[in-house]
Amino acid sequence: MTTTQQIFAWCQLGRLLKAHAKSLEWHTDIDFISEQQYISFEKTIEKTFHRNGWFEQNEVRNALLEISDWLTETNLENWQSNYKTVIQKNMTVAIIMAGNIPLVGFHDLICVLFSGFKAKIKLSSEDDLLIPEVINYLTSIAPFYANRVSFSDRKIGDFDAIIATGDTLSNKTFQTYFSMKPHLFRGHRTSVAALTGDETAEELKFLGQDVFQYYGRGCRNVTHLCVPVGYDFSHFFQGIVSYSNVIQNKKYGNNYDYSKAIHLMNGEKLLDNNFMLLKNSEDLNPPIAMLYYHEYSSKEALEKYLEEKAPEIQCIVGRSYLPFGAAQKPKIDDYADNFDTMKWLISLA
Q1: Within a domain: residue 50?
Q2: Helix (H, G, I), strand (E, B), or coil: what is residue 227?
Q3: For residues 60 and 57, what is the distance between their CA atoms, to the nearest angstrom?
Q4: Of the candidates 184, 65, 188, 57, which has an alpha carbon nearest to the alpha carbon of residue 129?
């Protein structure tokens, strides 16, 4: 199992995922997978929404498209050129995957396998259909992976190191049960937007994508706006109006209604455009269907706030930061919590 063989396998997988992302029918360019397997994956995409009401088909296909963009020969070769030559290791890395957005655990999986380890996967109950289908594709394309990936339904069992992602409560559990082994534990982070007040309508529309993609449930989703004193929110609301259909999702709509009712009962001031609530708060973690915002008086005050909140922030979008619309388009070397997973894995051997 050479690096070249691995890159070829993942590139083939990328072609398949892109075909599903674009809702294409099985065709001769992807006939290294049977039509029956391809149709099975399509049915899983449909089934996923019935299992988890957040995972609408367009959200799943978007996740597949973003992942497929990683899996090109150029991207994989450039990524792997930053690390030592990979050799097969007889060690197992457990991966406890989150389930907040579709296929969120994929990046850990490719890192573990590319670094030469076996992967033992504990799936989230919110996303337990897509990863097994991806593995079925991968092992069909590259049989050398067949004995290097396994799943754990309950107790994880034997492993040599562990990667686990979850909320604050989950992290306490991870620390209690798994901290005696080499570990990489990730907690909850979120993302912010730094606005100047003179953003164009197009920029604000792209910001809406950063807010509403995956219904705002990812660590790269913007949940907080930093705005200058006296900011006119009517421009922001006009810029995001094209995302008003998010309210049609039952889970999102229920969250919107609940948060609105609770805050109104408590007499708290809200801004409301009938599908998104805004509340003045310096905190970063509002409930679903709500954004927090705060006003800054100077560039220095903005930078001070961002520096203080840095441990809680995954990314920042704005004219001086990550471009609007790019928050949910990470590259393969954009690591969660800005911690190089591959470097850590390679150091274990």
Answers
A1: yes
A2: strand
A3: 5
A4: 57
Structural domain contains residue 100: yes
**Res. 199: pLDDT tops 90:** yes
- For residues 288 and 319, what is the distance between their CA atoms, to the nearest angstrom? 25
Candidates 332, 8, 31, 28; CA nearest to 142 is 8
Residue 273 structure tokens: 């455009």
44-90: per-residue pLDDT in tens?
A: 999 999 999 999 999 999 999 999 999 999 999 999 999 876 677 78
**Whether residue 164 is found in the same domain as residue 217:** no
**For 99-117, what is each residue's pLDDT tens digit?**
999 999 999 999 999 999 9
Bridge partner list, 211:
none
Q: CA-CA distance, 163 to 167, in Å (whole number)?
A: 14
Rounded-to-integer distance, Cα 171 and Cα 337, Å:
14
User: Are 218 and 54 in contact, with CB atoms under 8 Å apart?
Assistant: no
Domain assignment present for residue 344? The answer is no
Residues, the chain: 349
- Residue 63 in contact with residue 101, Cβ under 8 Å? yes
Q: What's the structural domain count of the chain?
A: 2
CA dihedral defined by 113, 115, 116, 122, rounded to 10 degrees?
Answer: -40
Q: Does one domain contain both 213 and 131? A: no
Q: How buried is 65 (Cβ within 10 angstroms: 0-12 exposed, 13-18 middle, 19+ buried)?
A: middle
- Is residue 297 one of the residues assigned to a domain? yes
* Cross-strand pairs, 294: 226
Could you tell me if 266 and 217 lie in one domain? yes
Residue 37 CB partners (closer than 8 Å, separation 6+): 136, 137, 140
Please indicate, yes or no, whether residues 182 and 228 belong to a single structural domain of this protein. Answer: no
The stretch 171-195 carries a mean pLDDT of 89
**Which range of residues forms the domain containing residue 281?**
190-317
**What phi, psi does 277 have (nearest 5°)?**
-110, 140
